[in-house]
Amino acid sequence: MSRCPIDPGTMSQTVVLGVIGSDAHVVGITILEQAFDAAGFDVINLGVQTSQEEFAEAALEHDAAAVLVSSLYGHAEQDCQGFHETLESADIDATTYIGGNLAVGQDDFEETRATFEALGFDRVFDSETDTEEAVAALTRDLRQQTPETERATISS
Amino acid sequence: MSRCPIDPGTMSQTVVLGVIGSDAHVVGITILEQAFDAAGFDVINLGVQTSQEEFAEAALEHDAAAVLVSSLYGHAEQDCQGFHETLESADIDATTYIGGNLAVGQDDFEETRATFEALGFDRVFDSETDTEEAVAALTRDLRQQTPETERATISS
Amino acid sequence: MIRDERISADELRRIDDEIRSNWSTGDAVDFEEAIDYHESLPPKKRFADVLESADKPLLQPRAGVPRLDDQVELLEYLHGEGKADLLPTTIDSYTRDNEYEKAQEGLEKARDTGEDTLNGFPAVNHGVEGCRELIDAIDAPIEVRHGTPDARLLAAITFAGGFQSFEGGPISYNIPYTKRHGLEETIEKWQFVDRIAGAYTERGVRINREPFGPLTGTLVPPSIAIAIMLVEGKLAATQGVRSITLGYGQVGNIVQDVAALNALKKLGNEYLPDEVVVTTVFHEWMGGFPPDEARANGVISLGGMTASIAQPDKVITKSPQEFQGVPTKEANSAGLRTTRQVIDMAIEQQIDIDGIEEEQDLIERETRCLMDTIFEHGDGDVVQGTIQAFDSGALDVPFAPSDSAAGAVLPARDDDGRVRIFEWADLAMDDDIKEIHKARLSQRADTEGRDQSFRMVADDVDAISDGKLIGRPQGGA
Amino acid sequence: MIRDERISADELRRIDDEIRSNWSTGDAVDFEEAIDYHESLPPKKRFADVLESADKPLLQPRAGVPRLDDQVELLEYLHGEGKADLLPTTIDSYTRDNEYEKAQEGLEKARDTGEDTLNGFPAVNHGVEGCRELIDAIDAPIEVRHGTPDARLLAAITFAGGFQSFEGGPISYNIPYTKRHGLEETIEKWQFVDRIAGAYTERGVRINREPFGPLTGTLVPPSIAIAIMLVEGKLAATQGVRSITLGYGQVGNIVQDVAALNALKKLGNEYLPDEVVVTTVFHEWMGGFPPDEARANGVISLGGMTASIAQPDKVITKSPQEFQGVPTKEANSAGLRTTRQVIDMAIEQQIDIDGIEEEQDLIERETRCLMDTIFEHGDGDVVQGTIQAFDSGALDVPFAPSDSAAGAVLPARDDDGRVRIFEWADLAMDDDIKEIHKARLSQRADTEGRDQSFRMVADDVDAISDGKLIGRPQGGA
Ligand code: B12
Ligand code: B12
């Protein structure tokens, strides 16, 4: 199979990735890491059981363009309370995504999406998300934020 | 396994059994025949694709105490229109049961029961019916109709 | 005296004219124009080609509702959501009885009330145009499935209507499906059906014919089913059919089922003429289902597992609602997807189970006994042989409702769950084979500490719906 | 330096006092009184006896909700409607982190709102009395299932609360479940858990212990899982445990799964002391499930099929809603009944598949390599050996999130769908075994016309949820 990395643009595109709270589901981020890496991003994978502060520290240190939070075990809502405040207080203005199994039990995803958008995430992904989908979305989102080059807007 | 036939009483207890309409599902009545026979009834099995008239003729000829109608294929309601009128016009006053898969599709059984009771059947059985259940019910129903012996009423 | 001979062109025309006058829609059938229509169909709607060129088992559900638009919607759903490879159109019971008048009433009632007052699609009433609307709408091949003893008009209309596959046969749609039709009568009628299929075939439109293998669906010993498939395959071939799919219904014992499908394929190629392309179809369990969708899914999966090992060309799936009644489209698709998942997970695995060859050998020997008796009864003619063999009981089907079969043979499972014959009646079978069955069944009787009796048969009939394969006495063994 | 030695009575008492003061409910634990309580339980609630005396695989689901009455209702349902033989109580994630305060908040919120704000039953917060209410209410044995690195308080409370089976172990509840706990630390903590189980055992209350076999649930090569089971079994035995259930998670290839379960049983009996009763548990597929209940039922059924052949003592079932989130009780029961139907239909059949002995032999040889390296690393001491072997990477688990494991080993399926090792890193394995894996994997690479790479691993991770066993390139082979 041929791989077609989507060119993420010229500026450094560092992505911080991790599983929040005390969640230890690592397989998803392992796959995500590989996909973002193959697409040309610089990926800082913090692994599982990452605290809000660790996300903030890493984002600051690496001047991350995006922070990608994963949660599978059903406690995402509690774990993400105040997440964006933590980022803001460290002056981080990165694009934030969250994805995985975000609710306990058999929930309706639209409700879940609304909950996490209200918490401040730019995009919310369910666990059926294809890695390509996430890579494409981030590529688009980051391009639109790049003022120096003129680009045609890609409709989302 | 020991078999405990339920004594259906002293008088002749002939049961006419058949599958109505153009339905050819024979396995159920084969099993029912064997069960009623083992329980001491005289069973006249008319087989599949039996018309209302054939049921009436057989009931008359054998002075049947009960007429048991089976239907599996989903056309029972059409096939049983006027069934009790056919019996009445031949002066047959037998207990009538119907059983099997009585509706097309995934229906609520209580509705189905009401439909067939309205058509005149004394009892309506679904396809989860155990043969023993049917034998026990008929034994009770026929006893209650036997005036010469005094019996304690068995609650149904 | 009817024999296994091709219907002459004159005769074909005569019957064709006659049956087309049985219902108003018969007029619209025009063979030449129909050939044009078939030729206009894209390759992916050509049933025989799609089936014969597949490299893994194709899945097909059962489905039929009275109204045309509902049928389109239903098949689109089964294709899209259920990912069915091949689609069905199941015909209603009135049409099967040639009661087109009653079917018309049902169809009109369905149109008025929106309810499904018929248990299938009345294709004769929908006519050639109605059928073509369906064929045009659906992006996959579609087969007519029914259970009609006299399917001549149905065949004439549905073939002209663009269907390229037609289930059934003179024995398989007689013995399990009807009480009073004589075999001679149904053979004559199906010779006509096969002859029109043959006529299309000669013009390059290969109509696929599929004898109905499961018969009564209830503990049918493999060799009986296979013998009947071979007979029906031969009859169809004589009339010019060149794409024949022989069927077999799962009995639930994996070794026996794989052996039976292997034997079916092998004997099919052996007994049918070389010019016929023989394919096989495996029906997921056709007997009584558990009254519980979760357990039904287990039954369906065991079918998928078996299919992944035997690799028939086609699998007819069941739905988890089989017990209850005609399934919703969602349940029907679920049955397809469950089957698909099991097959796709297992099919690349090498699963060679011991004892399959031995069982296959037994099935083949049994089938040859039955075929020999048929040829003997007919003095070499398979039509006469079949009629006479059923008449004498040398050929028989368990639980047959038909007056044309003795229905005296009784099956029961052995200690391993394979279907054996408990009561032979007059079935023609070598003594050494009978001894093998007897030994297997007495082993089971020993395990259970009870005598072989009809009770055992009845317990086996209920076993799968009660959650087991073998109908052991309760609390026993 | 921590070694594989029994904790002394003094030490046991000291730790016991210490941990019981970690949360208010610890006070209520009274060993002597607890023994009385266990003795009062009827035979059908004695986990070890029920499991060890069963004559066919017992079924057990996973289930835990925060509130006591809901948990009672849930387990009653799974027992009644799901016909589970053994019941679980799955503990919430805060308790697993020893965050009893947060668990308390969650529990109170659950009580106030009626919503399940925790992903399990906070047994420590419910305390001894709460646990006993559950044990009293349910007419079957119940196991504590969790994922807790430091499960000392949980064990003290649940054992006193009447539970007689406890899942987990120092490796299996560390490596897959947590990032920062050192192995030395978790081993020490689990020695205590095992020691209390041993203390009960000495008083005639045989607490069953079940190391968690599936590990990360994702393409774990059988020998790695088995080696870890043997280590944890040995550690438990040293502390006096006498009923040990070794676990294994389905990889989906029937031959490999049956071979692995056979090897697990055989090596378990060989490596563990004679006085231990060794049983086995088979977990239905623990990796990513299809996002479709119908297809999930196929995955579950393949597990049932495998169980019917391998006949482990227990099967942990999955629900068709596994992909989505914590299942409803109906879906959980459905998973049980689907599994039951498949097992009951297949278990009486003789299904001997070729190649099982060969695969078993390979698994055993691999496992012995790993066990040898452990003994060597520890100079005969299994505790030190395990710590050192993980440290050097001679022992490793694929996809391990823990800092205590290299997580450098990478698995991939071969052309038959068996899990092989693609990247060995420092795993201790004989070269001839490595060659076998290499040959199998290059056969697959050939079939697919692509190189072995992480892409293959990623495709295999997704394969079952995408509907296949092997992650072939799309549109390829
Ligand atoms: C494997 C597994 C485990 C393994 C994990 C091993 C490990 N360390 O990784 C083990 C067995 C240890 C485990 C433990 C637990 N698990 Co678990 N587990 C699973 C399972 C079966 C598969 C997860 C997986 O690996 N999938 C494959 C990967 C490739 O997919 P993924 O993780 O979904 O990630 C993809 C997408 O979600 C998405 N994505 C994920 N994150 C993000 C983030 C962003 C920004 C984006 C864009 C996309 C994205 O892209 C990824 C790549 O394709 C799922 C159920 C399922 N999905 O089938 C349950 C599941 C996630 N687990 C569950 C639970 C409850 C637990 C436990 C709490 C309970 C228990 N039974 O012990 C513990 C938690 C322990 C802990 N502290 O975290 C629940 C969660 C319930 C909920 N949310 O409502 C699930 C859904 C099972 C269930 N139905 O109950 N589990
Ligand atoms: C085997 C079978 C067949 C065989 C029948 C062979 C034969 N001649 O007997 C074949 C394959 C030929 C067949 C054909 C058809 N079948 Co069919 N068949 C079944 C199946 C799978 C099992 C039936 C069976 O034998 N059960 C075992 C016996 C022991 O149980 P039983 O018949 O239910 O009888 C018991 C009880 O119902 C009860 N009972 C029955 N009658 C009575 C009467 C009284 C008075 C009492 C007290 C009790 C009682 O006691 C019996 C003994 O325990 C059922 C589905 C299922 N149940 O799993 C579908 C089913 C009955 N068939 C169905 C249909 C639609 C058909 C066809 C119309 C369509 C088709 N696919 O071709 C044709 C009909 C042909 C015709 N003219 O009749 C539908 C009926 C739909 C509905 N009612 O809504 C069903 C439910 C399948 C489905 N889900 O779609 N079928």
Structural commentary:
- The complex is a heterotetramer, with two copies of chain A (156 residues) and two copies of chain C (477 residues).
- Chain A is built from six helices and five strands, in the order E-H-E-H-E-H-H-E-H-E-H.
- Chain A is α/β, with parallel strands linked by helices and 156 residues long.
- The radius of gyration of chain A is 15 Å and the shape is globular.
- The longest helix of chain A has 14 residues, at 131-144.
- The two termini of chain A are 27 Å apart.
- The model of chain A is unreliable at 1-10 and 148-156 (pLDDT under 50).
- In chain A, strand 4, helix 5 (109-118) and strand 5 form a beta-alpha-beta unit.
- In chain A, 37% of the residues lie in helices and 16% in strands.
- Chain A has a five-stranded parallel beta sheet with strand order 2-1-3-4-5, sandwiched between helices.
- Chain C is α/β, with parallel strands linked by helices.
- Chain C is 49% helix and 9% strand.
- Chain C has helices at 9-20, 31-40, 47-53, 68-80, 93-96, 100-113, 123-137, 152-160, 183-202, 222-238, 254-271, 293-310, 329-346, 356-377, 382-392, 431-448, 454-463; strands spanning 58-60, 87-90, 142-145, 165-167, 208-210, 243-249, 277-283, 314-316, 410-413, 419-423.
- In chain C, strands 1-8-7-6-5-4-3-2 form an eight-stranded parallel beta sheet, sandwiched between helices.
- In chain C, strand 6, helix 11 and strand 7 (277-283) form a beta-alpha-beta unit.
- In chain C, helix 9 crosses helix 10 and helix 11 packs across helix 14 (356-377).
- The chains are: A alpha/beta (156), C alpha/beta (477).
- Chains in contact: A-D, B-C, C-D.
- At the C-D interface, helix 12 and helix 13 of C face helix 12 and helix 13 of D.
- One cobalamin sits between chains B (22-28, 31-32, 68-70, 72-74, 97-101, 103-105, 125, 127, 129, 131, 134) and C (62, 90, 93, 119, 147, 176-177, 214, 216-218, 286-289, 322-323, 325-327, 399, 401, 461).
- One cobalamin (B12) sits between chains A (22-28, 31-32, 68-70, 72-74, 97-101, 103-105, 125, 127, 129, 131, 134) and D (62, 90, 93, 119, 147, 176-177, 214, 216-218, 286-289, 322-323, 325-327, 399, 401, 461).
